[in-house]
Amino acid sequence: MTIALPIITSALAEQSSAPPVAPAQANRVGELFDSHGRVIHDLRLSVTDRCNFRCRYCMDPDYSYMPKMELLSLEEYLRVVRVCVSLGISKIRVTGGEPTLYPELLELLEALGKMPIKDIAMTTNGSLMTERQARAWRTAGLDRITLSLDSLRDDRVAHITRAKTGLQSTINAIRIAQAVGLTPIKVNAVIMRGVNDDELADFADFAREHKIDMRLIEFMPLDSGRAWDRSAVVSADEMLDAINARHELVQLDKHDPHSPSLNFGFADGAPGRIGIIASVTRPFCGACSRLRVTADGKIRPCLFSLKEWDLRPLLRSGASDDDLGAFVVDAVWTKQKGHSINAADFVQPDRAMSAIGG
Ligand code: SAM
Ligand code: SF4
What we know:
Helices cover 31% and strands 16% of the residues. By secondary structure, the chain is an alpha/beta fold. Iron/sulfur cluster binds next to helix 12.
């Protein structure tokens, strides 16, 4: 992968002041790794920044979408994925914005299903899911879905999402996913102080009742409205205390070191699990194996990257797959050691979560 065609050299010079790629890195085939020794095998691919919700922690009502012509085409997404897979990516999560709004979602999943990828997942708010569609996604090769639900009270769901939706919409999506085998199902909830932190134990009841993994996420500074405030973050410790007061939790031994969540089962053996994603109070950057590509073709080595690596000029100017591969390798090499949410000089990225791909 030591191709140094002029197009790549100039693109790199413009986009990054990263250290040169180490020869050892460039010689390793079938493995993507960064300058901190982390192997990267998990791609989050955003296929749209559009959404039918405007969740308060993610997208403001006045957020302007990226112009359509700036978004990659289906062929371009697939080419990027093919190159990443040839470099060792073995897990893909399709996300957005709301990925079910992407008109060529089924074609994308069908093509992904034919690639040598071990795990194909998708994160969706679930509001537009029909059983027929979900069955087609499953047949195409989608393995599982993660849904988002931030309250168990209809009025709060509508308030948080700023949409005409409610709990039933997610319960329907869970039922559909169970019926067609898009399992195990995870349900994400972003916990915010004074908004939904009084429902933590209720979320545990919900996990038990529906036999799902409930993932409780610390609020991160990635909202387009920049309303994030440290005081709004409910810590993992607080979440665990609130749940343990109703249901005793046991930490599960089989912890995947690359999983962002701390996983718990119920001491009484009830079904369902709790996963806590403590990005703010217990960062897991040391074990991060993720790489992100945005809907407009920017590589983001980290969720909090301030620098992006633009694939689009390469894709649209005749670069070969080897050129693209070398570009991805170099971008991954620059992945920062960790986010600095807890540092005084933390700078929130320009892009909100909806435009990055969560
Ligand atoms: N629209 C889909 C959905 O909501 O499931 C997929 C995209 S959304 C950006 C992916 C995930 O990011 C959601 O589960 C959401 O809860 C999470 N998310 C968005 N903004 C966040 C924030 N500021 N902090 C933590 N998680 C956030
Ligand atoms: Fe849309 Fe998902 Fe962001 Fe909510 S979290 S606004 S559903 S992209």
